[in-house]
Amino acid sequence: MTTTVPQPPSATIRTSAKAVVLHEDQVLLTRAHWRDREYYFLPGGGQRPGESFGAAVRREVHEETGLTVTVDRLLWLREYIGAHHGEPDDGSETHRIEAIFLCTPASDPHQLGGHSQDDTQTGLEWVPLRKVPATDLLPQAIRQPLADLSPTPPAPDAYLGDVA
């Protein structure tokens, strides 16, 4: 007897790399108009086939903000399965995995302006870490951990990169 496992409506899992770019106790956020409201997001985006997470985050940050960044270390790995969070069960299920990296500017942090911003992006803003919990930053779950970051010695890197 063969047992079949039910398949989800979408077999696609989207991987992306996001950046926590810190400079002088501030974090760089993108501002976007999404679902009829203004929200803040971390810069970053989709990983391309054959591209490492580190390369993806550097490319995405440069495209969206104009900054060149150094990737310091992996902070968090976030998974989002839309069906678990009230998204409609219409066959367009969302399943994302986001690697969120701590980054520092390698170019002038005051010279902002990406050349390939997301369609919903309306701006860029350096936000003081202490103000992050009160912002409309999505995902909400990272507001406090982000605000708790400070210039303390970094933990060992948890991301080994594209290694054999």
From TrEMBL:
Keywords: Hydrolase. CDD domains: NUDIX_ADPRase. Residues 12-151 form the Nudix hydrolase domain. It comes from the Bacteria. PROSITE patterns: NUDIX, NUDIX_BOX. Its cofactor is Mg(2+). The keyword Zinc-finger does not apply. It holds the Pfam family NUDIX. Coiled coil: none annotated. Residues 143-164 are annotated as: Disordered. PANTHER family: GDP-MANNOSE MANNOSYL HYDROLASE (PTHR43046), MUTT_NUDIX FAMILY PROTEIN (PTHR43046:SF14). This is NUDIX domain-containing protein. The lineage of its organism: Bacteria, Bacillati, Actinomycetota, Actinomycetes, Kitasatosporales.
